[in-house]
Amino acid sequence: QLDNFPKDFLWGSASAAYQVEGAWQEDGKGVSVWDDFVRIPGKTFKETTGDVAVDHYHRYKEDIALMKEQGLKAYRFSVAWTRIFSEGKGKVNQSGLQFYIDLVDELIRSGIEPVLTIYHWDLPKALQEEYGGWESRKIIEDFTRYAEVLFETFRGKVHYWVSLNEQNIFIQHGYLLGTHPPAVQDMKRMYQANHHANLANASVIKLFHELQMPGKIGPSFAYGPNYSFNCDPNNVLAAEDAEELEANFWMDVYVNGEYPLVAWKYLKDNGLAPETLPEDTQLLKSGKPDFMGMNYYQTNTMAFNPLDGVSLGKQNTTGEKGTSEESGRPGIYKRKENPFVERTNWDWEIDPTGLRIGMRRIASRYRMPILITENGLGEYDTLTDKGTIHDDYRIDYLRQHIQAINEAISDGVTVLGYCTWSYTDLLSWLNGYQKRYGFVYVDQDETQNGTLKRYKKDSYYWYQDVIKSNGEK
Ligand code: BGP
């Protein structure tokens, strides 16, 4: 029985500006690095853009009405920095800000708790061009000023704030794999950019606390707990290394203001350590989050990777099952298929127990509450001619993960809420519109000529019952 959920549990769902809004040049919005990136041939699935996306910018009232009818308790969305400051800094663009004021007001009127993500990857292009974005310390000041405008605007209205979404993903994809902007492949630069992101994150959280903002703030971390492929001690060590370099490396800094010992030694020994200033530690330590946001999709099963072993594998961005390739860090670890779990058509492993494990690790290591800021299943959906979508696979997925959260609570973890990814269908960064996550189907595809009509999937009604019964369904 699923009776562990507290009465005020936030049953939510999530999105991000670039993936839903569209209106990419309206009301004074500036250009982001993603607006540019999707136009480079071969970078994303059929070069699908978010120019129109699912037109949430114009249809937010319709979308919120669906949320209200469903009984949704919380909606996580992100603000596009380029709507507030078209060039990333300077003068506030009031009409861009107004969109979010209206959105938040509409949510509040509908009894839905807004969960505001300050940064979900759409960096202003102007900052990338002027000083290399995250590669410069200047970003700390500009990001803090941007956040300050949001704090002033939404004080007392927004009580849950996410500072950075998946720093580990945007940094590693942007500077190591080269699959996100700025599409660099350079480890040294990656760790430097990452260090600035840490400082910017801490600076914003520190400001939030100095302003005594009512509410809570934390980063959303993409946590894929690492397993060992088997009990060969070399593989166990590989999994430990992966946990250190892929997880503790970020979360330790958020909470303790210090890089974990083993990871830092590795960076030093390999000439990869970022340049730091003496005052950095103090800033990092003064930006401790109130909760850990956890985005969970899958676990990583790790084995030893020889020096001449695999490095950057291929991601499956086409939805053809079995087309992804092993990847890893030569000399340390590589990711293997877990023979005990099922996979989606995009080769993402389905592992609800991994969610429980991850939550326990976070709660035990950091002693802080968790907000699940993303979890969901990206799959093909079929719209029948009756306008229905029978996504029982999504219901199964979500049900199992909710069960895992229920178990984690009985293990002692404090959980503030659960935001599924995603509310409506939306643009999947590298995978176009065919990889669908929503409760609400949107008629849109890579031609960008869809009717944009919304249809409720079976999972929409199922989650309605979950919310109504506080998780018991
Ligand atoms: C997370 C991002 C989301 C979302 C999700 C699904 O990493 O924070 O923005 O896109 O993953 O990923 P994908 O769209 O690649 O399937």
- The overall strand count is 16
Outline, from the CA principal axes? globular
Give the class from helix and strand content and strand pairing: alpha/beta
Percentage of residues in DSSP E strands: 5-15%
Bound molecules: 6-O-phosphono-beta-D-galactopyranose
**Radius of gyration from the CA trace?**
21 Å
Low-confidence stretches: none
Average of the residue pLDDT scores:
97
| Number of discrete helical segments | 15
How are the strands ordered across the major sheet?
1-2-3-4-5-7-13-14
Biggest sheet statistics: 8 strands, parallel, barrel
- What is the rounded distance between the termini? 9 Å
Helix content: 25-40%
Active site: 374
Protein name: Aryl-phospho-beta-D-glucosidase
Keywords: Glycosidase, Hydrolase
Family: Belongs to the glycosyl hydrolase 1 family.
Question: How would you summarize the topology of this molecule?
Answer:
Blueprint: E1 10-14, H1 17-20, H2 33-37, H3 56-70, E2 74-78, H4 81-84, H5 94-109, E3 113-119, H6 125-131, H7 138-154, E4 160-165, H8 167-177, H9 187-210, E5 216-222, E6 226-228, H10 233-256, H11 261-269, H12 280-285, E7 292-295, E8 300-304, E9 328-329, E10 333-336, E11 342-343, E12 349-350, H13 352-366, E13 370-374, H14 392-410, E14 415-421, E15 440-442, E16 454-456, H15 458-468
Parallel strand pairs: 1-2, 1-14, 2-3, 3-4, 4-5, 5-7, 6-8, 7-13, 13-14
Antiparallel strand pairs: 8-10, 9-10, 11-12, 15-16
Biased composition (Basic and acidic residues): 322-334
Active site: 374 (nucleophile)
Region (Disordered): 313-334
